[in-house]
Amino acid sequence: MSNTMIGLAGEHHVCAELYRRNILALMTPKNNPIFDIVASDANGKRSVSIQVKTMGVKNKTGWKFGIDMAQRKNNPNLFVVLVDMKRDGKNDYYIYKYDELSKRVNELYEEYIITPKRDGEKRKDPGFRWFDHKFFNESDKKKLNNWKLLGFSKTLF
To answer: What is the pTM of this model?
Structure first.
């Protein structure tokens, strides 16, 4: 599967999960720079924007982000859903406020960049950021399939 197809599959899976919870979900046109999905309750009282990042079944290294993921957006209605695709179709979804994930990505990057290479040489900025299960803390683990974090009515979950 190409990366484009994996990304689109992740977006469709997130939309399906939202529909199951009686939340309207609309995918934005491709290459929208900040979010992929607009989600709203049926009354239009609550809406959020969601960026989807998908890790394919064969991916063993985690989610790869552009360096823009390290920049906070200061928008409480902007979220990121990390999709971990599974062979059996029972995917895992990690739901973050955008700025919370940005903070985590920055923390991990700072730790990486100050740690010298094996030969003692200083690390260079790779031009992207990684986020993987091996870096998850307790707060990250609590985001697993926790759709309530989107702030929709509790009766929908």
So the answer is: 0.93
